[in-house]
Design brief:
The complex is a heterodimer of chains A (284) and B (266). With 284 residues, chain A is mainly α. Chain A has a single domain, classed as MetI-like fold (Orthogonal Bundle), CATH 1.10.3720.10. Chain A has 13 helices and two strands, in the order αββαααααααααααα. Chain A has a two-stranded antiparallel sheet. In chain A, helix 5 crosses helix 7 and helix 7 runs antiparallel to helix 10. Chain A is globular, with a radius of gyration of 23 Å. The C terminus of chain A is likely disordered. Chain B is mostly helical and 266 residues long. Chain B has two domains: 43 residues; 216 residues, MetI-like fold, CATH 1.10.3720. Helix content of chain B is 77%, strand content 0%. In chain B, helix 6 packs antiparallel against helix 10. Classes of the chains: A mainly alpha (284), B mainly alpha (266). At the A-B interface, helix 1, helix 3, helix 4, helix 5 and helix 7 of A face helix 1, helix 3, helix 4, helix 5 and helix 6 of B.
């Protein structure tokens, strides 16, 4: 390592992506924060200035209710996702590689699906003419098929569907890296599978599980089409209202102020995860 | 827990995840213009009808152009960052890596609004290049993560050997490093491509009224009622995603790509 020409790339090459990310990622964020203090321009988007009106509007009961709705929905979805995904991932990592790959391919495909398609599919599944109502009638549980959407239930199903593959992928690395000899040792010592689950796996994975809970929470907080397709207007989340204000109410400053609040909440939550060290992937 | 219980649990969850997609595949086969499951009469006519609908084809063209070009942008931004971080491991590399993965950790509506404000200021609001560049930046995360993983697997002595034998930096790059990380480069591109194809909110905010992509077109038609064409498009999206990820899984090491380090030694 005597000369720096041993490096794979010349040092200046990093300046190119640095410039690209600065101009196209940091600058847009800066402009957005600036816009949140701008004046609302009727008919246009915004006029530069320093105005706290938009932030004053953020702290009203209406926005407060929206925030409570968003947080409650995402917290519920994240809890359900992690509770279902944890045993799923544990069992998944015990399968052979081929079977693991098949399941991961399917979950990646679902994860990549547009929220529009997920919303459409779930509303079809819960609809009157094509839905599980038909199945329940056939089983003799109910007399006539009915629609289960739009409703809070449908929205929660949608959010869990959206969040589940993500949860699996977040939990997969820490669970797959557990030394298989540890639960094996406990088994040899006579511990029952349920006991191993609660006394070996759960304590070892406490931090990754809390990390997953938070990441899935932030992930579902971003859902913005499902509340419109599967929920009623009272279930509209902060993401929906931000878009609504920016595009349909032409109130960019208010949208930006709400986005700044959402950004702060998300950053705080992600910061907690990083402190927990639950997500050790990345720059190592 | 016996093997049976575990297999049952895995199968049950997978069935629940597959159910909405199966129902959509079923309704896409309706002979009449209605969404019924099971379909009273089966027909594949809507798959053919799609190719007669010029507005759906235009949306498909937009989506494919945006996804293929923005994937290239994402890879070209990610590659130098990953190489810099791998060969030097300094603060600049770490800062760039964090910046590169940041858009993916945050609710996308925030990034979308940032891009909207940016393109209004740059006077490019509503133009396709704005959508392409926004997607390219938003999706840097995926090739960045896959290429970094690929680089971690390279034995540094290989590079050093090539250098001592007198190979220039460019030659080492072309004959040693790039061939070794090619599968990760391709899977990074494929991840970015699929996600761009499905991305809604950024495309919508930046140019939703002028450049209609497939997800935007689906959502716009959802408001006017259901048609089997929407089910056909959804089926095509699912099939495309499964095929692309299956190819990655077939030729690449998917468990390792997703972070299971132990899977490498097994």
């Amino acid at each position: 390592m005597s000369s720096n020409s041993l490096h794979a790339t010349p040092g200046w090459l990093a300046l190119l992506p640095a410039a690209v990310l600065a101009v196209l990622f940091l600058v847009p964020f800066g402009i957005m924060v600036g816009v949140s203090f701008a004046h609302r321009a009727p008919g246009g988007f915004f006029e530069p200035g320093f105005d706290l009106t938009s932030y004053a509007r953020v702290f009203t009961p209406f926005v407060g209710r929206v925030i409570v709705t968003s947080v409650t929905l995402s917290a519920a979805a994240a809890t359900i996702c992690v509770a279902l995904a944890f045993p799923f991932v544990v069992f998944l990592t015990q399968l052979g590689r081929a079977a693991q790959t098949v399941i991961l391919v399917f979950l990646l495909a679902v994860l990549s699906l547009s929220e529009v398609i997920i919303g459409f599919s779930i509303s079809t599944l819960l609809s009157q003419t094509a839905g599980i109502g038909n199945l329940l009638v056939w089983l003799g549980v109910i007399d006539a098929p009915q629609a289960y959407t739009p409703s809070l239930f449908a929205l929660l199903v949608g959010l869990c569907y959206l969040g589940f593959p993500y949860t699996v992928l977040v939990l997969y690395p820490p669970v797959a890296r557990i030394d298989p000899e540890l639960p094996e040792a406990a088994r040899v010592m006579g511990a029952s599978p349920v006991r191993i689950f609660f006394t070996v796996l759960l304590p070892m994975l406490r931090k990754p599980l809390i990390g997953a809970l938070i990441l899935v929470f932030v992930f579902t907080l971003g859902a913005f089409l499902l509340p419109q397709v599967l929920g009623r207007p009272v279930h509209w989340t902060l993401s929906v209202h931000i878009t609504d204000q920016a595009i349909f109410q032409s109130n960019m400053p208010f949208a930006a102020a709400m986005a700044v609040i959402l950004l702060l909440v998300s950053l705080a939550m992600i910061g907690v995860t990083l402190l927990l060290g639950g997500r050790e992937r990345g720059a190592r | 827990m016996s093997r049976g219980v575990k297999a049952f649990y895995l199968a049950l969850i997978m069935a629940m995840m597959a159910a909405p997609l199966l129902v959509v595949a079923g309704v896409s086969l309706n002979a009449s213009q209605s969404l019924r499951f099971p379909p009273p009469e089966m027909s594949v006519r809507w798959y053919g009808a799609l190719f007669g609908e010029s507005d759906w084809l235009a949306a498909m063209r937009n989506s494919l152009i945006i996804a293929s070009v923005s994937g290239l942008i994402a890879v070209s931004v990610a590659l130098p960052i990953a190489l810099h971080l791998w060969s030097r491991g300094n603060w600049l590399g770490r800062v760039l890596y964090t910046l590169g993965v940041a858009p993916f950790m945050l609710p996308p509506v925030i990034t979308a609004l940032g891009f909207l404000a940016f393109w209004i200021s740059a006077d490019m609001y509503g133009q396709m290049p704005a959508t392409i560049i926004s997607h390219g930046i938003f999706l840097v995360t995926l090739p960045l993560v896959t290429i970094s993983l690929g680089l971690q697997g390279i034995d540094r002595e290989l590079v050093e050997a090539a250098r001592t034998m007198g190979a220039t930096r460019g030659r080492v790059m072309l004959t040693v490093i790039l061939p070794l990380i090619l599968p990760y480069l391709i899977s990074g591109y494929a991840f970015a491509f699929v996600l761009s194809l499905n991305e809604y909110i950024i495309a919508y905010m930046v140019a939703g009224f002028t450049v209609e992509t497939l997800p935007i077109k689906i959502f716009n038609s959802l408001r006017y009622g259901y048609t089997p064409i929407m089910a056909v498009i959804s089926v095509m999206f699912v099939v495309a995603a499964v095929v692309i990820f299956a190819v990655i899984g077939r030729f690449g090491d998917l468990p390792r790509l997703l972070g299971a380090e132990r899977a490498r030694g097994d």
